[in-house]
């Protein structure tokens, strides 16, 4: 059985999908654009966008009593791989050892022209979780984040 997760502390879904889904021992978090849910604005710069996407993910995970410490795998999508070092610095401020496994790739475009987006997957509180984070930068200089979370039971 699956249960939709929703919080006003993260941007609302912009299509026919949920912010997150709890299915048994696993939680799946949809990709999160770096939108401030209080203002609807996307912050300037990859560092601020990375932080906002991670805050959005934290809010969704909290709906199931989870934190970024529960994440076991992340995937980062960047519109410009030149943003990797700056994204990585902020990413490192949100995760502690043992760090989640991670992949990072450059992509062409994100929804709503966002520069980055992020998503995560998480599992039972008794098990290690996985989070995927993706800062993405549009060719016009805007930055978006996409994060994907995966948790292993």
Average pLDDT metric: 76
Helix content: 10-25%
| Topology, number of strands | 8
Silhouette: globular
Task: Kindly estimate the percentage of residues that lie in beta strands according to DSSP.
Answer: 25-35%
Question: Can you tell me the residue ranges where pLDDT is under 50 for at least 5 consecutive residues?
Answer: 123-153
Distance between the termini: 16 Å
Count of alpha and pi helical runs: 2
Order of helices and strands: EEEHEHEEEE
The whole-angstrom Rg is 14 Å
Largest sheet: 6 strands, mixed
Label the structural class. alpha+beta
What is the oligomeric state here? single chain
Short description:
With 153 residues, the chain is α+β, with helices and mostly antiparallel strands. The chain contains two helices and eight strands, in the order βββαβαββββ.
Q: What secondary-structure arrangement, pairings included, does this model have?
A:
Layout lengths: L1 E4 L14 E4 L2 E7 L13 H17 L10 E6 L5 H11 L6 E6 L9 E8 L6 E8 L5 E7 L4
Parallel strand pairs: 4-5, 6-8
Antiparallel strand pairs: 1-2, 2-3, 3-6, 6-7, 7-8
Helix pairs in contact: 1-2
Describe this structure as you would to a colleague.
By secondary structure, the chain is α+β, with helices and mostly antiparallel strands. 18% of the residues lie in helices and 33% in strands. The protein has 2 helices and 8 strands, in the order E-E-E-H-E-H-E-E-E-E. It has helices at 46-62, 84-94, and strands spanning 2-5, 20-23, 26-32, 73-78, 101-106, 116-123, 130-137, 143-149. The strands form 2 sheets. Strands 1, 2, 3, 6, 7 and 8 form a 6-stranded mixed beta sheet that branches. It has a two-stranded parallel sheet with strand order 4-5. Strand 7 and strand 8 (143-149) form a beta hairpin. Helix 1 runs parallel beside helix 2 (84-94). The longest helix has 17 residues, at 46-62. The radius of gyration is 14 Å and the shape is globular.
């Amino acid at each position: 059985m699956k249960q939709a997760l929703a919080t006003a502390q993260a941007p609302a879904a912009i299509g026919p999908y949920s912010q997150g889904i709890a299915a048994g021992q696993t939680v799946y978090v949809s990709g999160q654009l770096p939108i401030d849910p209080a203002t609807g604005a996307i912050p300037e710069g990859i560092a601020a966008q990375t932080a906002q996407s991670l805050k959005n993910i934290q809010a969704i995970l909290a709906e199931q009593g989870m934190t970024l410490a529960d994440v076991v795998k992340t995937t980062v999508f960047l519109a410009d791989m030149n943003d990797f070092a700056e994204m990585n610095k902020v990413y490192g401020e949100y995760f502690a050892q043992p760090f989640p496994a991670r992949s990072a790739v450059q992509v062409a475009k994100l929804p709503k022209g966002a520069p980055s987006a992020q998503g995560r997957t998480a599992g039972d509180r008794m098990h290690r979780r996985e989070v995927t984070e993706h800062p993405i930068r549009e060719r016009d200089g805007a930055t978006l984040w996409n994060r994907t979370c995966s948790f292993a039971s």
